[in-house]
What does this fold into?
Amino acid sequence: MSRFIVFDVETPNRKSDRMSAIGITVVENGAVVRKFYSLVDPETYFDPFNTALTGIDAVAVRGAPTFPALWQEIEPLMSGGLLTAHNAVFDMNVLKKCLADYGIVWKPYVHYLCTVQMGRKLLPGMRHGLSDLCAYYGIPLDHHKAASDSLACAQILLRYLDGGADVRPFIRTCTLKK
It folds into this structure.
């Protein structure tokens, strides 16, 4: 694997079926080659908990693209490598729900990589939260901000790869069709 699409999403509420922000960091041949960030109008309500966590509310997303509009822009990016996230099951499920809720057909399934799962095998005996790993590696983090989280995850992945990690045993499949 030489190209990873490292992404992180923020959600407006505990249903976790819509995005309020997405950060994407593209890693190619061992280096960050592109960064993308956008707020997303989730077209739904914001929980006070999520707003306090992310700093994103209905006012912040006013004028931001909805997921279908944003998807037209980010689909080529998302299709261009192995999807990767920290605690990827969460981010993959939000992506899957957004695609389904808006009736967007992408692929029947996608492969993805989770840096939490990798970390549990590569660095046993420690906590594998994003902030824990960033502290361990000295990576700057503005936690629960999608751009920062995706970049931090990409840098963690690069540390794993620089240490000789083989991603193949950690690749999983997410079925996108219902």
User: Anything to note?
Assistant: The CA atoms of residues 25 and 35 lie 5 Å apart. The mean pLDDT is 96. The domain at 3-175 is CATH 3.30.420.10 (Nucleotidyltransferase; domain 5). Strands lie at 3-10, 21-28, 31-39, 82-85, 109-114, 172-175.
